[in-house]
Protein backbone atom coordinates (compact mmCIF):
# COMPACT_ATOMS: atom_id res chain seq x y z
CA UNK A 1 0.00 0.00 0.00
CA UNK A 2 1.34 3.44 -0.92
CA UNK A 3 2.42 5.60 2.02
CA UNK A 4 0.65 8.97 2.35
CA UNK A 5 1.84 10.82 5.46
CA UNK A 6 2.27 14.29 3.98
CA UNK A 7 5.96 13.99 3.07
CA UNK A 8 6.97 14.20 -0.59
CA UNK A 9 8.16 10.77 -1.79
CA UNK A 10 11.60 12.02 -2.90
CA UNK A 11 12.11 13.80 0.43
CA UNK A 12 10.92 10.71 2.32
CA UNK A 13 13.43 8.54 0.46
CA UNK A 14 16.21 11.09 1.12
CA UNK A 15 15.34 11.12 4.82
CA UNK A 16 15.34 7.32 4.91
CA UNK A 17 18.73 7.20 3.15
CA UNK A 18 20.15 9.50 5.83
CA UNK A 19 18.54 7.47 8.60
CA UNK A 20 20.05 4.29 7.14
CA UNK A 21 23.52 5.85 7.52
CA UNK A 22 22.60 6.97 11.03
CA UNK A 23 21.51 3.42 11.84
CA UNK A 24 24.71 1.95 10.42
CA UNK A 25 26.84 4.47 12.30
CA UNK A 26 24.97 3.80 15.53
CA UNK A 27 25.26 0.03 15.21
CA UNK A 28 28.94 0.24 14.34
CA UNK A 29 29.63 2.45 17.36
CA UNK A 30 27.55 0.10 19.52
CA UNK A 31 29.71 -2.84 18.47
CA UNK A 32 32.94 -0.88 18.94
CA UNK A 33 31.89 0.38 22.39
CA UNK A 34 30.89 -3.12 23.46
CA UNK A 35 34.27 -4.42 22.26
CA UNK A 36 36.07 -1.76 24.29
CA UNK A 37 33.94 -2.58 27.34
CA UNK A 38 35.13 -6.17 27.14
CA UNK A 39 38.77 -5.41 26.40
CA UNK A 40 39.73 -2.25 28.27
CA UNK A 41 42.66 -2.63 30.67
CA UNK A 42 44.75 -0.39 32.87
CA UNK A 43 44.27 1.95 35.83
CA UNK A 44 41.01 3.38 34.44
CA UNK A 45 39.50 -0.08 33.92
CA UNK A 46 36.59 0.06 36.37
CA UNK A 47 35.40 3.54 35.39
CA UNK A 48 35.75 2.94 31.65
CA UNK A 49 34.22 -0.54 31.84
CA UNK A 50 31.13 0.98 33.49
CA UNK A 51 31.00 4.05 31.21
CA UNK A 52 31.33 1.95 28.06
CA UNK A 53 28.53 -0.34 29.28
CA UNK A 54 26.24 2.65 29.85
CA UNK A 55 27.02 3.96 26.38
CA UNK A 56 26.60 0.67 24.51
CA UNK A 57 23.27 0.03 26.26
CA UNK A 58 22.04 3.45 25.13
CA UNK A 59 23.23 2.76 21.58
CA UNK A 60 21.39 -0.59 21.57
CA UNK A 61 18.14 1.20 22.35
CA UNK A 62 18.88 3.87 19.74
CA UNK A 63 19.27 1.41 16.86
CA UNK A 64 15.73 0.22 17.47
CA UNK A 65 14.32 3.76 17.48
CA UNK A 66 16.12 4.64 14.26
CA UNK A 67 15.11 1.42 12.49
CA UNK A 68 11.49 1.85 13.57
CA UNK A 69 11.47 5.42 12.19
CA UNK A 70 12.71 4.07 8.86
CA UNK A 71 9.86 1.54 8.91
CA UNK A 72 7.32 4.24 9.82
CA UNK A 73 8.51 6.13 6.75
CA UNK A 74 7.59 3.12 4.66
CA UNK A 75 10.99 1.61 3.88
CA UNK A 76 12.95 -1.40 5.08
CA UNK A 77 15.76 -0.79 7.56
CA UNK A 78 19.23 -2.17 6.81
CA UNK A 79 20.04 -4.95 9.20
CA UNK A 80 23.14 -6.89 8.19
CA UNK A 81 26.84 -6.43 8.87
CA UNK A 82 27.38 -6.12 5.12
CA UNK A 83 24.83 -3.30 4.79
CA UNK A 84 26.14 -1.52 7.87
CA UNK A 85 29.73 -1.77 6.65
CA UNK A 86 28.71 -0.28 3.30
CA UNK A 87 26.73 2.59 4.87
CA UNK A 88 28.69 3.59 7.97
CA UNK A 89 31.05 6.54 8.21
CA UNK A 90 32.76 4.98 11.25
CA UNK A 91 35.84 2.83 10.76
CA UNK A 92 36.15 -0.42 12.67
CA UNK A 93 38.87 -0.64 15.28
CA UNK A 94 41.77 -2.89 14.46
CA UNK A 95 43.99 -4.58 16.99
CA UNK A 96 44.00 -4.01 20.73
CA UNK A 97 44.00 -0.37 21.73
CA UNK A 98 45.15 1.15 25.00
CA UNK A 99 42.47 2.80 27.13
CA UNK A 100 43.29 6.35 26.02
CA UNK A 101 43.23 5.28 22.35
CA UNK A 102 39.82 3.69 22.93
CA UNK A 103 38.54 6.93 24.41
CA UNK A 104 39.82 8.99 21.49
CA UNK A 105 38.33 6.54 19.01
CA UNK A 106 34.95 6.65 20.74
CA UNK A 107 35.02 10.47 20.75
CA UNK A 108 35.45 10.36 16.97
CA UNK A 109 32.57 7.91 16.68
CA UNK A 110 30.26 9.98 18.87
CA UNK A 111 31.11 13.10 16.86
CA UNK A 112 30.59 11.26 13.56
CA UNK A 113 27.08 10.25 14.58
CA UNK A 114 26.25 13.80 15.67
CA UNK A 115 27.38 14.99 12.22
CA UNK A 116 25.39 12.29 10.44
CA UNK A 117 22.25 13.23 12.39
CA UNK A 118 22.82 16.92 11.69
CA UNK A 119 23.17 16.25 7.96
CA UNK A 120 19.61 14.88 7.80
CA UNK A 121 18.03 17.90 9.52
CA UNK A 122 17.66 20.15 6.42
CA UNK A 123 15.53 17.71 4.41
CA UNK A 124 13.51 16.63 7.46
CA UNK A 125 12.92 20.28 8.33
CA UNK A 126 11.95 21.18 4.75
CA UNK A 127 9.46 18.30 4.80
CA UNK A 128 7.99 19.21 8.21
CA UNK A 129 8.97 15.73 9.41
CA UNK A 130 8.78 16.54 13.10
CA UNK A 131 9.08 12.94 14.34
CA UNK A 132 12.39 12.55 12.50
CA UNK A 133 13.53 16.01 13.64
CA UNK A 134 12.76 15.04 17.23
CA UNK A 135 14.72 11.80 16.87
CA UNK A 136 17.65 13.64 15.29
CA UNK A 137 17.67 16.30 18.02
CA UNK A 138 17.73 13.62 20.70
CA UNK A 139 20.52 11.72 18.96
CA UNK A 140 22.66 14.85 18.53
CA UNK A 141 22.17 15.74 22.18
CA UNK A 142 23.21 12.27 23.38
CA UNK A 143 26.25 12.01 21.11
CA UNK A 144 27.52 15.53 21.75
CA UNK A 145 27.23 14.93 25.51
CA UNK A 146 28.95 11.53 25.26
CA UNK A 147 31.79 13.02 23.19
CA UNK A 148 32.26 15.76 25.80
CA UNK A 149 32.28 13.24 28.66
CA UNK A 150 34.82 11.05 26.89
CA UNK A 151 37.04 14.04 25.94
CA UNK A 152 36.97 15.13 29.59
CA UNK A 153 38.65 11.88 30.61
CA UNK A 154 41.81 12.73 28.72
CA UNK A 155 42.00 16.47 29.17
> How large is the count of helical segments?
5
> How far is the first residue's CA from the last residue's CA?
54 Å
Order of helices and strands: HHHHH
The level of helicity is over 70%
Content of β-strand: under 5%
How is the topology of this model organized?
Layout: H1 9-39, H2 45-72, H3 81-87, H4 99-126, H5 130-154
Helix pairs in contact: 1-2, 1-3, 1-4, 2-5, 4-5
Account of the 3D structure:
Helix 2 runs antiparallel to helix 5. The protein is elongated and about 55 Å long. It is mostly helical. The longest helix is centred in the N-terminal third of the chain and has 31 residues. The mean pLDDT is 96.
In short:
This protein is 77% helix and 0% strand. By secondary structure, the chain is mainly α.
